Each structure stands twice: as C-alpha cells, then as structure tokens.
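Data availability (excerpt). The following record was deposited with the supplementary files.
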Amino acid sequence: MLLIPPNRSKVLGPQAVLDFDFYRRIWLDPLFKTFPYLAIHQAVYEEVIVKPNLSRYIDNKIQQQALLLLKDEELTEEEEFIRRSVEQKIAAPTNYEPELDNKDDRGEVKSLAYIHVKELIYFCSNDSNALRLVEHADKLETNLDSLITLRLYEIIYYLVTLRMASPKTMRSLYKFHYLATRHEKSTNPNWQEFKEGMDTLYAHAIQKSTGKPTPLL
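Predicted structure:
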C-alpha cells in the first residue's frame, strides 16, 4: 500500500517507522502532484481510515477530486455479475474468502476485481502477493493478463526523473525499502546501479518525452 507510511520495524527495529508528516512531504505530496488522477477502491480506503492523519489527508484528496473513490455499489447489474465471478478466481490463490468477507487480502482482491470489470490499465502496489496475482495471471488463472503493474521503485525513479521529488529523499526512500538488510543489499542494486539501469531501460521513452537524455544523479 503506497499511501501508508512504511513500517519496517519487524526487521529493523522500532525506529524504522516513518513519521506521517515526513512521509507526506517527501512522498505523498509529490505523488499527487505528479499523478492528478489516482484512484483507490473502497475496500482499501477502509484499511486507510483507521490512521487519523492519513485518513484526513485522503479524505481531503477525495474532496478535491484528486483521488477517485471506487465503489462496487456504483457498478451496473451486469458489471457486478462479472465482478463477483472474477473475484472468485482472483481470491482463489489468496487468503481472502468472498463468502466470509474476511480482511486478509480483501483490499487487493476487490481492487483487482473492480479494475478487471472497468478495464482499467494500471495497478500500483508494493505488496508482492498482490503483484503476483497480475504477473502470474496465466498460471494462477486470475483473468488479469492485460493489467500492467507498477512497482514502488518505478514510481521512485519516475519522480526523480521528472524532478517532482528530491533526489536525496528518493534515494533515502529507495534504500529504506530495498537496501536496509544484508540480504537486500546482496540481491538489489545500489542506488547508482539502480538509476543507471533504469536510465538504460527507459532511455528512449525519456528522450522522447523530454527531448534530451536524463543526466545521472
């Protein structure tokens, strides 16, 4: 969940919890400034509102129409029939049981079912279990083959490339998520390697959109 301040206290100790105001300043504000038409499903919204500071922030974005709140109740009868059918398939490889409507994986499953019905294009998450439902759609038979996933590190790179966020804070956020443990340092590229690799991967797209190559940071 990209809206909730990350908590890595289980692996790094009690100090590894980002303060909301700090997270809002370095991440949420640049995110909404860069992407003016984001959307959140009702089921995920219900997970967010338990955090007062974030709840007020999200409600404000919804009121400003900077964030769309997607509700199953607004679907047509035909769309709801399709949603229920595909929800069963998406839920099968997760811990969510539609009949019980339990909380485990509920937000991810309902979001993806809604996305499928409305034929939306992008799904952004930092949850590996949610991402696998899309990236292994054929194997898991989730009917999400046409959906495109966006990962946290791709958003970090995009914000830096467009100069919408501080390179220094984005570098710190990248390290917090991907280089905080010994295992992560051995499996993930460091910041410079990450930046160079992404620049190479997206060089054509960057030059096409900006008219010039993006310098390394």
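Summary of structural features: The first helix runs from residue 9 to 12.
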